[in-house]
Amino acid sequence: MPHPLSRLSVLLASLIPVLFAACGKSQEAKHLPPPPVSVITIAPADVPSVYEAVGQTAGYREIEVRARVEGILLKRTYTEGKPVKEGQLLFQIDPAPYRAALDQARGVQAQSRAQLEKARLDKERIIPLYKENAVSKKDYDDAFAAFDTATANLDSANAKLQEAQINLDYTNVVAPIAGMASKINVSEGSLVAPTANGGLLTTIAQLDPLYANFSFSEADQLGLQRAEKEGRVIMPKSRNFEVELQLADGSLYATRGHVDFADSKVDPATGTIRARAIVPNPDGLLLPGQFVRVRIHGVTMKGAILVPQRSVVQQQADKVVLTVNSKNVVEPRPVELGATHGNSYVVTRGLKAGDRVIVDGVLKAKPGSPVSIAPAQSAASAPATR
Length: 386
Known about the structure:
By secondary structure, the chain is of the alpha+beta class. It contains 4 helices and 20 strands.
């Protein structure tokens, strides 16, 4: 049977290599180099600011095409949903009754013209007779009165003839403007009349240019006014705000417009202010009723602090960036973020000029631990490009 001291010696001999290995690993861990990170030095810069709002397009002019005379709608002469030209024939109302009325008005005009000619001759004959006392003063006055009456009757007949011609012309319903015609509101063969309920035939929307209606909150307006007063933003000259539209598929409409209207009152139901942009639409790519994101350009932020989006980490409810102090030790810094600018955030609170922010190697950096500095891949102060 082995002696107990011998067994102890064997046990100690087996533990010595393990203890030396553990000590080696501990020493190795202590001498690991600091992880490399890339940092940027915060340098405030003037950068453009973009305000976004949800909007909806609308026709520059939307015209209701209505019947201006009563009658049976005989036919439609345009294609629904297609462009029409100004003055193009759209509908025809039965012209027969109005053509008959025009002929009747011409007959009345001819009678009135003949009566006027007779009254003129009677007046010219009675003037010399009256001078010779061959006729009475009453006959003289009656001749002049008959001439004036015949003149008035002819004027009335001319007006009736003109009215009959206008009504006949109204049986051809033409497009008052060029634009996109909608579907027909009544079918052929229906009785139409110039009334609120029975006169609407179709609508035409002018598509070039096009409106984009949107709204912004009262708080946004007050914040912008305060920032301008404090010199934190620069407004465009003459308040000429450029506008671009982002479509439903995420693409940007190629042609920019400008804001042409902002209401002078706040909607009490929503707390928002209505506004409108006008956008060129020469190819008709935009249609009324489309939902778009309206991006308003023109405001410049003075001394803005930008950080790349990849440098911002979420810690519970806070947004945090990791900074490096003068001893190259990591310090977390809670920040408040404003609008996005390309691939960067605008920092409204939490950073100042000269701070060094980690942009690459964020996952390796531990708060309170040293890091080694490597060249940054991008600059936070450089304006982002699209």
